[in-house]
Specification:
By secondary structure, the chain is of the alpha+beta class. It has helices at residues 6-12, 21-36, 60-72, 76-83, 102-111, 144-166, 178-200, 204-217, 222-230; strands spanning 40-45, 53-57, 87-89, 116-124, 127-136. It has a five-stranded antiparallel β-sheet, sandwiched between helices. Helix 1 packs antiparallel against helix 2 (21-36), helix 2 (21-36) packs antiparallel against helix 6 (144-166) and helix 7 crosses helix 9 (222-230). The longest helix has 23 residues, at 144-166. It is globular and about 55 Å long. The chain starts with 5 loop residues before the first helix and ends in an 11-residue tail after the last helix.
Length: 241
Amino acid sequence: MSEYGAVTQALLGIARDVADDYALAELICRACVDGLDVDGAAMSVLTTSVARQTLHATDATAERLEDLQFSLNEGACIEAATTGRPVLVSDLHHSTEVVRWPIFAAAVVEQTEVRALFALPLQWGTTNLGVLDLYRRVPVGLSHDQQRDALRGADTAALMMLTLRTDPADPARGDERWLGHLVASRAEIHQATGMVLMQLEVSATEALARMRAYAFAEQRLLIDVARDVVARRLRFTEEMK
């Protein structure tokens, strides 16, 4: 018997020449629905950023769950993306976990027939690429084997997305290589943090916090503030709040 579950085996069997991320997301979601006995699935990328996007939802309910979470900025998907840990809720109607996102939970109960939710982060090192969301209409959690398969499948899916999105862009397809932009953005923020900590003589954590606070106060994106710092258009002083 293979050490891999149905989902992982299905993903490993997907052709390597899948060139479109939407098509790949659809294959990943379908493998999860077929292999884990769930009713629906959705995949989002850059889930915690302003550029977040749903690549695929298997049905209207899965799409509704994504819309609710992104609109309310809370829910299993957002928590999984933020913490980097899977969020497994076997019964939304009787779970102490949903107190962390009461508005989302109430909306799901009121607007859908969903009873169980499973959000699996797609991780690249410490960076969250996105989240794979699964749901059931019955209050039944994933079995031990299903949970293991789901987690391995999420790791495989993350690697597949990483491989696809770090390949050279094809101008004919209009590729944007969002992961390349993500890596570049992190490098610029890291460089700017180093410059601010020197300017203020504070720790890296405090320097990043100062940049975040400034971006929030000025209603700007952190990456834009970082670019101004790197280009020396902006210098932080003790007087800046």
